[in-house]
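Teaching assistant here, posting this on the class forum so everyone can see the example we discussed in section. The complex has two components, and the goal was to see what a joint structure prediction looks like when all of them are supplied at once.
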Amino acid sequence: SQQGEEDPQALSIQEGENATMNCSYKTSINNLQWYRQNSGRGLVHLILIRSNEREKHSGRLRVTLDTSKKSSSLLITASRAADTASYFCATDVSDMRFGAGTRLTVKP
Amino acid sequence: DAGVIQSPRHEVTEMGQEVTLRCKPISGHNSLFWYRQTMMRGLELLIYFNNNVPIDDSGMPEDRFSAKMPNASFSTLKIQPSEPRDSAVYFCASSFNSGNTIYFGEGSWLTVV
């Protein structure tokens, strides 16, 4: 499968803590994207990181990419209850197929 | 821009009936994707089009499912005949070329009884 696989499947933290989730893939890529899905809604794009980038920031989000390990991580700092959602990664070579996602629960 | 527009938002139909889901992609986007999401199977890519041409339909579950894109601003996903196991949320998404950021619609919630 060329799609990204997210890990862990589920993550539960307290508000204010940081949340880290990971994505692994199998083939060479041009870019990797992270998306969020709130319950009952469509996926929303969070951030895109290109293969020649190692780290990218957007607000409280920090994404890293290690092409040698074929992996990426998404860090959400100072989490809020509103960050409760499922998070997915996808690569450009996967024809935008998604894995099972990481279900993040942030407890108030 | 209004985003990706899907209709209907909710549909309840009886087994055996034909179901047609509709999608209007974002203007200027040339790639369109249909996904199905269930608790059991997660988010599955059913088919995607590039410049109105189906590129990969390997995710279409069976012959009961068909998708068309007659022009750049409209696509349909049809299920005929529908079965209870088709109950799911069907998402349409679009992007400018495959591999770039994709934008999802709000989904069509289908229940087949």
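For the discussion questions: The interface with chain A takes residues 4, 33, 42-43, 45, 48, 55-56, 89, 91, 93, 95, 98-107 of chain B (CB under 8 Å). Chain B has a mean pLDDT of 94. Think about how each of these relates to the inputs above.
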